[in-house]
Amino acid sequence: MTKFIFVTGGVVSSLGKGITAASLGVLLKRRGLRVSVIKMDPYLNVDAGTMNPFQHGEVFVTEDGAETDLDLGHYERFLDLSLSSDNNITTGKIYSSVIAKERRGRYLGATVQVIPHITNEIQEHILKVADGNDVLIAEIGGTVGDIEGLPYLEAIRQVAGRVGRGNVLYCHVTLVPFIAAAGELKTKPTQHSVNELRRIGIQPDIIVCRSQFPLEGDIKDKIALFCNVRKEAVVEALDAPSIYRIPLTLHDQGVDMLVLRQLGIPATQEPDLMDWREFDHRCANPETEVEIAMVGKYVSHKDAYLSVVEALRHAAAAGGAKLVLRHVEAEDVERDGVGSLSGVQGILVPGGFGSRGIEGKIAAVGYARTRKIPFFGLCLGMQVAVVEFARNVCGIAAAHSSEIDPGTPNPVIHLLEEQRTISDLGGTMRLGGYTCELVQGSRSHEAYKKSVIRERHRHRYEFNNEYRERLARAGLVTAGVCQGRDLVEIVELEGHPWFVGVQFHPEFTSRPVRPHPLFRDFVAAAMKVTGKGALQD
Ligand code: GLN
Question: Is the dihedral of CA 153, 157, 160, 165 positive or negative?
Answer without folding.
Answer: positive
